[in-house]
Amino acid sequence: MTTLEKIVSLCKRRGFVYPSSEIYGGFASIYDFGPYGVELENNIKREWWKYMVQDREDIVGLDSAIFMHPKIWHASGHVGGFADPLTECKKCHNRFRGDHLLNEIGVSADEKMSEEEISALFDSNRDKLKCPVCGKNDFTEIKKFNILVKSNLGNLTGNLDDENTVYLRGETCQGIYVNFKNVLDSTRVKIPFGIAQIGKAFRNEVTARQFIFRTREFEQMEMQYFLHPDQEMEEYEKLKEYRWKFYINLGLKEKNLKWHQHEKLVFYAKAAYDIEYNFPFGFDELEGLHARGDYDLTQHSKFSGQDLSYLDPDTSKPFIPHIIESSVGVGRIFLAVICEAYTEEKLENGEIRTVLKFKPNMAPFKAAVFPLLKNKPELVKKAREIFDLVKENFVCEFDDNGNIGKRYRRQDEIGTPYCITVDFDSLEKKDVTVRDRDTMKQERIKIDNLVEYLRDRLK
Ligand code: GAP
């Protein structure tokens, strides 16, 4: 069975994900991506960018700064309302989100409820709640805790009042909204069109559990689609379908994905759905898709004093564009893709083989090249030649550590689809052994045909 513990352990052991600042005892809810992790992350981001920007005539890219004018976070409602319901266990002093504790006992609650609503629900279920760390049943009152991360950017003198506090962005889409007019005025786009970007976001998340599912620094991939109000719901349905297909293309099985409709909507929203994935801890949010009405551009018009309306070319009437949004964390897709690929197989000798069966487009390395023996210079020389040939075409690594069995096990655990071994026959017959990760079958392939052989299979 795929458990979160097994995934965490493999990610650390095989250089995908490390806890942050580990030699200093760690730093809660922050993670670093290792040599294989960064390749997987880049694969996810590349696929997303191609699908959301390069394959679409109606969507353009953007890379806005992490720091933005403080007023943006007032306009967006984050300073006033971006808060999680916090409670503390009076025995072990760990802090938790009240809505999560309620969800664990089957009571529906979320961070969007007001402090009064969630407090009342929490209090009426108090006797059933247990601390996930120490098991005791003694919690403080619920308090709403703002999760924007403050910074002291710049040489500001005098009092840092709330109005001047600078924040690390809590979501990337605000950078898109405030550049709407720039993009409109400087490119060929016409409504309906989208702006997409990938970048870091920061939140003082209350609980730090579930590995990279919920972290305080994370990367978002967001696309905001600007349209006429009459187009909103039709385009929203199309976007939902388009985004679902993206996950199927990444190799996630349909049975591990499902829609979750938000019943309680914020006052301006027309619709809100999440795509959920079946993580080892159960179905949970992978991506959010929201029909946001004209809230975002109306708020930024109001707070900036700039006219963000769009002149309808057919009617010559101005209107504030409505927005539909697709928003997902790179880390959540990363975790879903690893969980989906994680496989344990019982071999004939009774041993358990652990293998990450990534689709080729997700595999951090597409091939690995080994000399059969590392102390035979003629084999190493030939293997290096083959490595040079393969790495011109595919992301590939050279490995001469330990015996062949160990090297196969390592490559299986990082999900490399093909291992290429150079042996003494290779020198005479100008061929190599290619081992398939999933079937473990080995074939002799002429060196002249090797690149084509791999290209056919890695498509
Ligand atoms: N602009 C809309 C927005 O930010 P959200 O539901 O707060 O909406 C969107 O976040 C997506 O960002 C989530 O579906 C999730 O994939 C990712 N995400 C949010 N908070 C996260 C966190 N603390 N750690 C990792 N990913 C997170």
Mean pLDDT: 94
- Indicate the radius of gyration in whole angstroms: 26 Å
In DSSP terms, counting alpha (H) and pi (I) runs of 4 or more, how many helices? 15
Count every beta strand, where a strand is a DSSP E run of 2 or more residues.
23
List segments where confidence is low: pLDDT < 50 over at least 5 consecutive residues: none
- Given helix and strand content, the structural type is alpha+beta
End-to-end Cα distance, whole Å, is 30 Å
Characterization of the model:
- The chain is α+β, with helices and mostly antiparallel strands and 459 residues long.
- Helix content is 33%, strand content 26%.
- It has 15 helices and 23 strands.
- The chain has helices at residues 4-13, 35-54, 71-75, 78-81, 98-104, 115-125, 173-177, 180-186, 232-250, 295-304, 330-341, 377-391, 404-414, 424-429, 450-458, and strands spanning 17-19, 31-33, 59-61, 83-88, 95-97, 143-146, 149-151, 166-168, 193-202, 217-227, 257-261, 271-279, 282-291, 310-311, 318-319, 322-329, 342-346, 352-356, 367-371, 396-398, 418-422, 431-436, 442-446.
- The strands form seven sheets. A seven-stranded mixed beta sheet has the order 3-9-10-16-13-12-11, sandwiched between helices.
- Helix 2 crosses helix 11 (330-341).
- The two termini are 30 Å apart.
- The mean pLDDT is 94.
- Bound molecules: glycyl-adenosine-5'-phosphate.
- Glycyl-adenosine-5'-phosphate (GAP) binds next to strand 10, strand 13, strand 16 and helix 11.
